[in-house]
């Protein structure tokens, strides 16, 4: 203390708050820089989101449109019903190979009728333009309406995937140079047919409701069957994980004594929430398929695996909403003579319900987008061409699921399938968005602040 | 008749029991429910529970035990001569089971008479053909002993089924009767019912434990099976991954497939590191900006937008890596650009996309942690004249550091366990290289490729997936427990 007073103070440098010295300047600069880093980070995150969404939309929207050819097919009795008599057994004997020439002839006639000049002079040259599914489409129609044989009927058939690609700028004249399936002359013809209104790009409902197709028929493939597969899976998930999750949470939150067993359960649940999804797939494969011999690729098994995966999410959110119900509600119920069980089931649970439902919807939405465990229980590689023929079959017959179908398409070699995969993602995201919006509305509408 | 009819009948009995129990309770109190110990519906539920629970328990036990007994009895009937070279009793038993199901279905569909299916002197060559004609799947010709065994199998299981029906129905009726018997005004029905409900709740809570036990057991058993077929040392220390299609053993007794985990672990770690290098700076700075600088309006818009990234399914990121990021990187680093990259699928592709996926993880977790730092610490720092960034760097971040490390570890465990992005974006070749533009593969991607397709579950090439799964499980679990420990320890400091 005394030392200090002996010291003669150095003359102070004259400075003013109004003039910024070098040190303050550098501190302020570093402040601005730091702030900029923050803005840049947020902007980068938002930028990635925008890029992702743009990529999805710009690549996927095309899948909802498809190129169709409208042709007048003469259902030649000499080919389709050689014996006459229109007996259904005889008509069914004619395979799609019998119908292909008729469709090709019809398109060839349309080319001539519209006076389009082309070096293609044979009926068979039309093959490159028409999807292989057209013959089957005509055949199905004839089998359903055998009396139409001998008439000329107008059909809207799918164009081949190359023609479709040409309409969507995926196939160009330079890219077809090495293509075995289509030649530039065909593309000239397509231009002519488009001008004549025979070929048109239209909205394709079959992409949303249709079934998957074989590798070579990208133009025919749709998501419908796998949407059903996902739906059945989500029914299993909802039917199992909601009651089990709610029961678990009620026990842990309201009844469980504070002992080691309860601790074990709690630690377990929080760890299960962080187990990689593929491990649940291994569990499903080992327990449900290898051990219990449940059918492979069945939505039931997929649902069971996803249930185990969703349970921790639902339990965590249910416990949070049970916790948010104030103790006064319980005390009041107990005070007028309700048992503990009655207080919980008659009062606490109904009040916590909006929160529980919100958590459940979010959990189910998460399960809907999950792919990895489905790969292991065989929900890929299976071509989902048939709709399940009933509720039981819907649960037990092999099927695909939306994300598994998208993965399947992404693996196929034909670039036409990439567009379908992006389109499938749009459908998947629409489902997820709807579910999340419902959850948000539920929360806004029913949330109570105590 | 299938089992679900039995379930429906038992449930019907329970419903009936509910009505009767409720009525009996009211009648015993002379129609005045105030004289009862509990509400009348509790007496009804009591009867219903006593009808359903023992009956269903018996049914489950029966369904589990009966096949074991039947298998045991039937396997004794198969002579040693039927078990061919390279086959086992289990395989023959499967054949017997198939034949028995074939017989059953043939009888059900009317293609065969009950007498014929039971006839032990039936000509077995004829039987094979007839089963095939009836549309049943018969893989090999049914021989005499197998046919006999199949007939016995069918007889035993059908007989067992029949007795199960009788036993279960008897137990259900007895249970309902017992419940009705006890329905007196003094009976504490509510306590009984509530005890049952409580048991149900405990049962539900145990499912989480059962899942973990299931995961661990299925991993351990199959991993042990794998290590029986493949040396442990080679799995952990061999630097090559090269499964051969047929499997087999070379002349020295070593397996032909080389299943070393090292290249897969390296790929996993490399991709995760790149992902974290993208996600941690962006996520952390975004969290700092949003919690310390941004106004409420910016926060209300930017935070949900970042969180949308977390809600997007991984298959979308996978496709994004495969079809957008891969070709884009090829354009810059490929043959037309710098010439470093040969194919679109590479460590860089998967790492970048995974990094994008992890941004919201890091940002929202760190956001919570930064917000948990008490305002008083910031105020103290401002009071000493520090600027905002100095406060963040020297006060807030050090205080939040353990929590942030925890968040990063959680993100790392996510990255290690991520499957779809690496399956689609990282390639399939297992190699150990430092070049991030080369294709590499990960533990998760190999689990998928070894377990999909028609792999035979007994081969080391398929079983290795369980050993990989086990490694993955232990790795992620360890990271999680460590991260949670750090986060929890830190939280206690300021609470």
From TrEMBL, chain A:
It comes from the Bacteria. CDD domains: TM_PBP2. One of its GO terms (biological process) is phosphate ion transmembrane transport. The keyword NAD does not apply. One of its GO terms (molecular function) is phosphate transmembrane transporter activity. It holds the Pfam family BPD_transp_1. The keyword Cell membrane applies. Coiled coil: none annotated. It is a multi-pass membrane protein. Keywords: Cell membrane, Membrane, Transmembrane, Transmembrane helix, Transport. One of its GO terms (cellular component) is plasma membrane. Residues 227-439 form the ABC transmembrane type-1 domain. It is found in: Cell inner membrane; Cell membrane. Its main location: membrane. The chain crosses the membrane at residues 34-57, 227-252, 272-294, 300-322, 343-368, 421-442. SUPFAM superfamilies: MetI-like. PROSITE patterns: ABC_TM1. Belongs to the binding-protein-dependent transport system permease family. CysTW subfamily. PANTHER family: PHOSPHATE TRANSPORT SYSTEM PERMEASE PROTEIN PSTA (PTHR43470:SF5), PHOSPHATE TRANSPORT SYSTEM PERMEASE PROTEIN PSTA-RELATED (PTHR43470). This is Phosphate transport system permease protein PstA. The gene is pstA.
UniProtKB/TrEMBL annotation, chain B:
PROSITE patterns: ABC_TM1. One of its GO terms (biological process) is phosphate ion transport. GO terms for cellular component: plasma membrane. Residues 265-483 form the ABC transmembrane type-1 domain. It is found in: Cell inner membrane; Cell membrane. GO terms for molecular function: phosphate transmembrane transporter activity. The chain crosses the membrane at residues 45-65, 162-180, 200-221, 264-290, 310-333, 345-363, 462-487. Pfam families: BPD_transp_1, DUF3708. It comes from the Bacteria. Keywords: Cell inner membrane, Cell membrane, Membrane, Phosphate transport, Transmembrane, Transmembrane helix, Transport. It is a multi-pass membrane protein. Part of the binding-protein-dependent transport system for phosphate; probably responsible for the translocation of the substrate across the membrane. Belongs to the binding-protein-dependent transport system permease family. CysTW subfamily. NCBIfam families: phosphate_pstC (TIGR02138). This is Phosphate transport system permease protein. It comes from Pelagimonas varians. The gene is pstC.
